[in-house]
Specification:
about 20% strand, about 300 residues, 8 strands, eight-stranded mixed sheet, about 35% helix
Length: about 300
């Protein structure tokens, strides 16, 4: 995998100062902080490189209006099959869209496509249209679509990676780990990438989205939610996983990510590759893709080269 030569924009000093200012008090005004980060990173990403990538938008994979994919394909002379990253956005179960803004979340897929990887941005039904396991069923159908069309998309079926952010990891994680929600022939994944992921369902007092969790899973029972949580289905045969989270996360998500690392380590007898992003918050962990701050991107590229 090689990058298309083109400079990526730096995160401006003023934005870094803003991140440092709001980080320690992230949850005191979480909704406005998320909105602010989306706005500020969208400005930066407006200057991010998009060259060398062809984008095919609104590809249907199902009947619902949200059953659409955007496919980001590298443009070069190679005829070899490429790995693919399938991205699942967040939004606390009730909000969110694969195109949060013109720049967010397409920045993630542009980054990977510019490094020789086919990027797929997945739309899925939200909790007001489909409760558990509806979104996970959608993710499975999107994976199936990509596998069925891999030849025409130039994708190596043996190198398909699923990636989630925030609540997107609840849906993607259930598909990646819970065998009850996988097709009879298996999940078809080479790896799973978790960024600031909600991999545990809970309605604890510290969880600002507890009501949304209860709405999606249709229960507030702790034992039932534990049984439905992606992290509860990790075992020795679980797909290779990469886990990353920011210094300033939405409440409990850093703990959930750390729990996933621990459980994978217990089950596989070695910890998975992971990254803790100093100075980053729940939104910047995904908003900074396709900027010059690409330490996380490079770590994920290394994982894609050698998933374990």
């Amino acid at each position: 995998m090689s990058a298309v030569p083109s400079s990526m924009p730096d995160i401006p000093p003023a934005l870094r100062e803003l991140m440092a200012e709001i980080g320690p008090r992230w949850d005191q005004d979480r909704r406005n902080n998320i909105k602010l980060m989306i706005e500020e990173f969208s400005k930066v990403l407006a200057d991010a490189p998009r060259d060398g990538v062809t984008v095919t938008r609104n590809v249907r994979y199902g009947e619902h209006e949200r059953h659409e994919l955007d496919i980001f394909t590298p443009v070069d002379a190679t005829t070899r099959k490429r790995p693919a990253v399938l991205f699942v956005h967040g939004g606390a179960f009730l909000d969110g869209h694969r195109n949060r803004t013109e720049q967010i979340y397409s920045n993630v897929l542009y980054y990977f496509a510019r490094h020789g990887i086919v990027g797929v941005n997945i739309g899925y039904r939200l909790a007001d249209a489909a409760t558990y396991p509806g979104a996970t069923v959608d993710i499975g159908n999107a994976v199936r679509y990509v596998r069925d069309h891999a030849d025409e998309l130039g994708i190596d079926r043996d190198r398909i990676f699923l990636m989630g952010h925030s609540a997107g990891c609840a849906h993607a994680g259930s598909y990646a780990y819970d065998k009850r929600l996988q097709p009879a022939d298996g999940h078809g994944l080479r790896g799973f990438i978790v960024v600031s992921g909600r991999v545990r369902a809970d309605v604890l007092p510290d969880n600002p989205n507890a009501k949304r969790v209860e709405m999606y899973y249709e229960t507030a029972d702790a034992a039932t939610l534990d049984a439905l949580s992606p992290v509860s289905h990790v075992d020795a045969d679980s797909v290779a996983t990469f886990v990353a989270w920011g210094e300033y996360e939405n409440p409990l998500l850093d703990i959930h990510c750390a729990e996933l690392v621990f459980r994978l380590g217990q089950a596989k007898r070695r910890t998975p590759p992971m990254m803790w992003l100093k100075g980053h918050n729940h939104t910047s962990t995904i908003g900074h893709f396709n900027t010059a701050d690409d330490a996380l991107g490079r770590a994920i590229l290394a994982f894609i080269d050698d998933p374990r």
